[in-house]
Amino acid sequence: QIFRQHNAKAPNLEEAFHRMAQMEPNLDHDVSWFLLPSYWAKMVVALISFLCFANSYDGDFVFDDSEAIINNKDLRAETPLGDLWYHDFWGSKLSSNTSHKSYRPLTVLTFRINYLFAGGFYPVGFHVINIILHCTISVLMVDVFSILLGGLQFSNKGRRLNLAPKSSLLAALLFAVHPVHTECVAGIVGRADLLCALFFLLSFLGYCKAFRENKEGHTFSVFWVLVSVGLGAIAMLCKEQGITILGLNAVFDALVINKINLLELIRKLLYKDKALENAGLLRKGLLFRITLLMCGGAGILYIRWRIMGTGPPAFTEVDNPASFADSLFVRAINYNYYYSLNAWLLLCPWWLCFDWSMGCIPLIKSVSDWRIIALAALWFCLIGLICQALCSEDSHKRRILTLGLGFLIIPFLPASNLFFRVGFVVAERVIYLPSIGYCILFTYGFSLLSKQAKKKKILAVAVLGILLINVMRCALRSSQWRSEEQLFRSALSVCPLNAKVHYNVGKNLADKGNQSAAIKYYREAVRLNPKYVHAMNNLGNILKERNELHEAEELLSLAVQIQPDFAAAWMNLGIVQNSLRRFEEAEQSYWTAIKHRKKYPDCYYNLGRLYADLNRHIDALNAWRNATVLKPEHSLAWNNMIILLDNTGNLAQAEAVGREALELIPNDHSLMFSLANVLGKSQKYKESEALFLKAIKANPNAASYHGNLAVLYHRWGNLDLAKKHYEVSLKLDPMAPGTKENYNLLRRKLEQLQKKGG
């Protein structure tokens, strides 16, 4: 309700506003809860939201953080800032067929700023920003809930009145401590949802400011409506859900500002009643404001569509199996089941998982499946709430229920599969914004129970218990997000049928060198999903390293049969075939890999090794040169070029290649070692010695470094130094090839010199 100032000299006008507000139904009359001044309420919310997620501040980069941050070239200084506007969230070109079309340039920009200030990929700074963002959003929720639950009213001084301080505090606390938010806060990639939510709320609050009467006496400000549209655009540039705030602003305008009765309006539209103006549609500039919102939203979507291109995102069946079902019935049933699971996560956020795809939720294929009960329960509750929101004679009840349902459903629509296919089954991060609606409905339900309850304190203690349990659950879940090992293992009990969970546990074990345990989890991943080519590829790699070549070949051959453009599997198949001495097949596999991934330096490197084994030296050098062109820091390719040229007597060329490599990778001790060998053979002893010593300083425990330096001194005539380094080499590796023989030769020579001297 908007009040005008008719008499500036009225002494107690602000108190009159409070009295007028109290005449309307108010949630706080029935809510048995703490009443705190606005400042203290916000401080409490900020502190509790901080305590929930504080233990995630020193966590690692986990799960999707690797692709979105560590492997994302858009974070590096050498990438022009302008490229961010033409790349997706993962750093791929939006025009690429493989792009997920997730356009979030402002989120990527914050990652880039984090990287710049941290001086590298140090996760602490990234985590701290996420925690601060969630605390800020939770504090803003106090103001947002005070409007949604208490209405929008201003004093004669233009100050917004908080007519539901107790209810808004409770709702903000529920939001701040909800465990389903852990993925957004503790997972750095969740920054997209946090930034989107921040500007989403600012857009809503900006829209509310439009109705504060200005000095000219206008009842709304076009400027603030346009600011709200702009903030909505910024929210969308952080994550796609942000655009939905424009629809919610329109709903808020109709229900709260214009007090439209939706059921009455629908009836008048159906019966073509000419008195629509009396229904509030044209009053107070509603139609004009909705036109502004619609034009702004359409303009934003058009610009995004032009940048993104017309092609849909590329997702696979394992990402969202229901969307690939042939039957419309199966798709509809499973989509609705996914909605019920999202609702359950809001009601009971105990079973949380980083990934719900790949068999975690088997498809419902018939009405005899007992899970149909979940759909029925969801729609029974929704239809009941919608009927109350439309048909209740209590306008206060209608307004709160409609706003609660609006904030629950509208921000979820982009993730609903209704308009386009999404790349997930269930994702906890996408219900960060819809949880606002849940908190409204929960708080309203609590007020109704409080009104009926005789012992209100017991009810308040129960809600305090829920908040405390959620705080502990947040802290526990945040600790699980601190490392990939804890995160992946936590999912085994929640989604034991999820092949990706087993794959990620196996990958984590393999990275730590525990190959035997990794094999077990990779095999389970393949058993659960017989078409899981990435699990086959990784399992094949481990079996290859364990010299179980025939099974490795079977797995890799099956992987490329299932996915013929899987370049990594083709390369690994080539390595196995090379080890089996089937050189022609290996060469063909390498070239197939390069055909599917033209910029593939590792494949060129392995192709060079094949040609070297076949004594096709020119082809080997060309392959390795291609590897270094594509990846100038490819140390192994440079080393192999130097060694091959050295072994074939091309010392001058080997020296030139070695110097070129060290200019590009000046701190690589293996390159220093290889070039030092070449310089020693070219009798450039002083320079060779300097490089050997530098290599030994970088890697003092390499027996070959000491052994070859000893050979240099031996040739050079520095026999005492040669003896010293031979002995160090043999101490590090008593079985070092050739070193013992050279050492014995040196000892005999030293004995002969002693005899001559004697």
UniProtKB/TrEMBL annotation:
<keyword id="KW-0677">Repeat</keyword>
<keyword id="KW-0812">Transmembrane</keyword>
<dbReference type="InterPro" id="IPR013618">
    <property type="entry name" value="TMTC_DUF1736"/>
</dbReference>
<feature type="repeat" description="TPR">
    <location>
        <begin position="533"/>
        <end position="566"/>
    </location>
</feature>
<keyword id="KW-0256">Endoplasmic reticulum</keyword>
<feature type="transmembrane region" description="Helical">
    <location>
        <begin position="430"/>
        <end position="449"/>
    </location>
</feature>
<feature type="transmembrane region" description="Helical">
    <location>
        <begin position="403"/>
        <end position="424"/>
    </location>
</feature>
<feature type="transmembrane region" description="Helical">
    <location>
        <begin position="220"/>
        <end position="237"/>
    </location>
</feature>
<feature type="transmembrane region" description="Helical">
    <location>
        <begin position="188"/>
        <end position="208"/>
    </location>
</feature>
<dbReference type="GO" id="GO:0016020">
    <property type="term" value="C:membrane"/>
</dbReference>
<dbReference type="Pfam" id="PF08409">
    <property type="entry name" value="TMTC_DUF1736"/>
</dbReference>
<dbReference type="Pfam" id="PF13432">
    <property type="entry name" value="TPR_16"/>
</dbReference>
<keyword id="KW-1133">Transmembrane helix</keyword>
<feature type="transmembrane region" description="Helical">
    <location>
        <begin position="372"/>
        <end position="391"/>
    </location>
</feature>
<dbReference type="GO" id="GO:0030968">
    <property type="term" value="P:endoplasmic reticulum unfolded protein response"/>
</dbReference>
<feature type="transmembrane region" description="Helical">
    <location>
        <begin position="33"/>
        <end position="54"/>
    </location>
</feature>
<dbReference type="GO" id="GO:0005783">
    <property type="term" value="C:endoplasmic reticulum"/>
</dbReference>
<dbReference type="InterPro" id="IPR019734">
    <property type="entry name" value="TPR_rpt"/>
</dbReference>
<comment type="pathway">
    <text>Protein modification; protein glycosylation.</text>
</comment>
<keyword id="KW-0472">Membrane</keyword>
<feature type="transmembrane region" description="Helical">
    <location>
        <begin position="243"/>
        <end position="266"/>
    </location>
</feature>
<protein>
    <recommendedName>
        <fullName>dolichyl-phosphate-mannose--protein mannosyltransferase</fullName>
        <ecNumber>2.4.1.109</ecNumber>
    </recommendedName>
</protein>
<keyword id="KW-0808">Transferase</keyword>
<keyword id="KW-0802">TPR repeat</keyword>
<dbReference type="InterPro" id="IPR011990">
    <property type="entry name" value="TPR-like_helical_dom_sf"/>
</dbReference>
<feature type="domain" description="DUF1736">
    <location>
        <begin position="311"/>
        <end position="383"/>
    </location>
</feature>
<feature type="repeat" description="TPR">
    <location>
        <begin position="703"/>
        <end position="736"/>
    </location>
</feature>
<dbReference type="GO" id="GO:0004169">
    <property type="term" value="F:dolichyl-phosphate-mannose-protein mannosyltransferase activity"/>
</dbReference>
<dbReference type="Pfam" id="PF13414">
    <property type="entry name" value="TPR_11"/>
</dbReference>
<comment type="similarity">
    <text>Belongs to the TMTC family.</text>
</comment>
<dbReference type="InterPro" id="IPR052346">
    <property type="entry name" value="O-mannosyl-transferase_TMTC"/>
</dbReference>
<feature type="repeat" description="TPR">
    <location>
        <begin position="499"/>
        <end position="532"/>
    </location>
</feature>
<feature type="transmembrane region" description="Helical">
    <location>
        <begin position="131"/>
        <end position="151"/>
    </location>
</feature>
<feature type="transmembrane region" description="Helical">
    <location>
        <begin position="163"/>
        <end position="182"/>
    </location>
</feature>
<feature type="transmembrane region" description="Helical">
    <location>
        <begin position="458"/>
        <end position="476"/>
    </location>
</feature>
<feature type="transmembrane region" description="Helical">
    <location>
        <begin position="286"/>
        <end position="305"/>
    </location>
</feature>
<feature type="repeat" description="TPR">
    <location>
        <begin position="601"/>
        <end position="634"/>
    </location>
</feature>
